[in-house]
Amino acid sequence: MLNVPMHCIELILEQAGIIAITDKYARYTFVNKMWQHDTGISEKEALGKYAHEIIEGSRAIAAITSGKVLTADMFIKKKDGTSLPGVMTYYPIFNSNEVIGCFIYSSFESMEQAFAFSEKLESITAEYEFLKGEMRKRSGVKYSVDDIIGKSDAVKLLKEHIYQAGASNSTVLIEGETGTGKELVAHSIHACSLRNIFPFVKVNCSAIPASLMESEFFGYEEGTFTGAKKGGQKGKFEIAHLGSIFLDEINQMDMTMQPKLLRVLQEKEIERIGSSESIPIDTRVITASNTSLREMIRRNQFRSDLYYRLNIINIVIPPLRSRREDIPILVDNMIEKISNKVGREIDGISNKAIEYLKYRDWPGNIRELQNVIEKAMNVSRKSNLSLEDFKKFESYEAFTSGNRIANEEMSSSNENDSPLMLMNKKNNIEKSTILDVLEMCEYNKSKAAKKLGISRTLLYQKLRKYNIEIEEVM
After folding, report:
1. In order of start, what are the domains of the chain with their CATH numbers?
2. To 10 degrees, the CA torsion angle through 219, 223, 225, 227?
3. Main-chain phi, psi angles of 175, to 5 degrees
4. Considering only CA atoms, which of 329, 358, 367 is closest in space to residue 149?
5. Is the pLDDT of residue 69 over 70?
6. Confidence of residue 427 (pLDDT cuts 50, 70, 90)
7. Closest Cα partner for 399 from 423, 429, 354, 370?
8. Binning pLDDT at 50, 70 and 90, where does residue 86 land?
9. Which residues lie across from 73 on neighbouring strands?
10. DSSP, residue by residue, 392-444
11. Pairing status of strand 284-289 against strand 98-106
């Protein structure tokens, strides 16, 4: 340890910038000449005074109590009554594990200089964020993680997975039922990645004929085929260079196209149709599927080698029925967004209507929920949506349409499905139908049993079987 004379330490403190020191109660024990100059307060007047008495917004006490280094803007009250803005950093002083004071420091020659620098930094930061936002708009990205609505554990975990994916450059496979928001997740991954100022290109594999898919993906040279554009055309992968390409419904990709996509993933280059020249690309690939690719592999409908290339990061979006607690906040958000579209303002929704929505199975997930909310808003004549608003356009057939679809799916089940899987499908359909009819009959068991064509006793048995406990059921 160096033995530095006290007068040398004092000289350093006088020349290093604006400096003050307090005891553990945030009372000044030292103020240098630069501090005195800026405040207009002499050393004699300052010593023993609490920091917050002189510096408006002082964080000395906060630094002492938390034991953490803090930086803050504040205003120094000068003797002439004026206030001088500045930026200070507060360092807690430790003796062993105990905080015994605070070292207050600014490296600027004056508070005016510190504040001017702070204002300049804020201006540059604001300009940077604006330009970054404009670049994101031009990139084609429409959504971010903030657009994913919900507070359930399932949504929190989903957002965590999105941030993890955003920090990586690996391929992503997003899986989820129809209407769960796979495109929203894809946009969000791109938005929180370092590629977010570069293009985000979406391609719906189910919307492109197999004969045109290669030219759409990789482009073509002039004169390659009849109707080809003069000068040729870039493909989606070239357009997405440095950014991300989102291949939606990858499960619909033709088998003849799959090995060509695999080559691009392996070699990081493409060839336009009609050209032998390889074009290097740096494009992140995000894919989505609403069916099990593993099952398609078993049926020889999807290449396993391509699947392993695509499924490096796997994100599974939960269906709406597995996060029913998010339905109220989703509904509020939808009402706010749809109000302008329907040309009238809706203030909210009744508790009965919310309960009605929470008990639906939602085979179409969030997309179906949005459809139902918009329908109700169009037929409602009140400022609040009520249960009656939903029943104005819901018939028994509409109630059970989702179940009829499920029934068709069950009848066309995979021959490899086990008897237990088939029984579970049947039970899910039956439970959903009972809930639908109960809602339609306003939870009157006698009416529901009659509508279902079964006895009241049998209805009770099925309610117990499926653990349906609803107080409103009469």
Report:
1. 6-114 (3.30.450.20), 145-316 (3.40.50.300), 323-465 (1.10.8.60)
2. 90
3. -120, 140
4. 329
5. yes
6. confident
7. 429
8. low
9. 87
10. TT--HHHHHHHHHHHHHHHHT--TT--HHHHHHHHHHHHHHHHHHHHHHTTT-
11. unpaired
Higher per-residue confidence, 343 vs 372: 372
Of 275, 7, 333, the closest CA to residue 148 belongs to 333
Question: In sequence order, which residues have a C-beta less than 8 Å from that of residue 346 and are 6 or more positions away?
Answer: 335, 339, 377, 380, 383, 384, 385
Judged against a pLDDT cut of 80, whether residue 188 lies above it is answered with yes
Q: How far is CA 418 from CA 188, 297, 413, 414, 425, in A?
A: 38, 19, 10, 9, 11
R_g of the chain, CA atoms, integer Å: 33
Give mean pLDDT, residues 275-291: 95
* pLDDT score of 403: 46
Is residue 192 very low, low, confident or very high in pLDDT (cuts 50, 70, 90)? Answer: very high
Long-range contacts of 323-326 (CB under 8 A, 24+ apart): 323/150, 323/152, 323/154, 323/155, 324/358, 325/151, 325/152, 326/149, 326/150, 326/151, 326/152, 326/154, 326/155
How many angstroms separate the CA atoms of 109 and 116, rounded? 12
Residue 431 identity: K
User: 291: which residues sit within 8 A by CB, 6+ positions away?
Assistant: 251
Phi, psi dihedral angles at 72 (to 5 degrees): -155, 155
3-state secondary structure of 91: strand
Could you tell me how many residues make up the chain?
Answer: 474
Integer Cα distance of 163 and 170 in angstroms: 13
In the structure, how many helices (H) and strands (E) does the chain have?
21, 17
User: Which token pair is 379?
Assistant: 């037929």
Q: Which amino acid is at 357?
A: L
Task: Give all strands (DSSP E) within 14-115, no chain letters.
Answer: 18-23, 28-31, 55-56, 70-77, 83-95, 98-106
Q: Is pLDDT at 406 greater than 50 in this prediction?
A: no
Determine the residue type at 302: F
Kindly report the CA angle at 229 between 198 and 251, in degrees rounded to 5? 55
Q: In what order do the strands lie in the sheet with 172-175?
A: 200-204, 244-248, 284-289, 172-175, 313-316
Tell how strand 83-95 and strand 70-77 pair up.
antiparallel
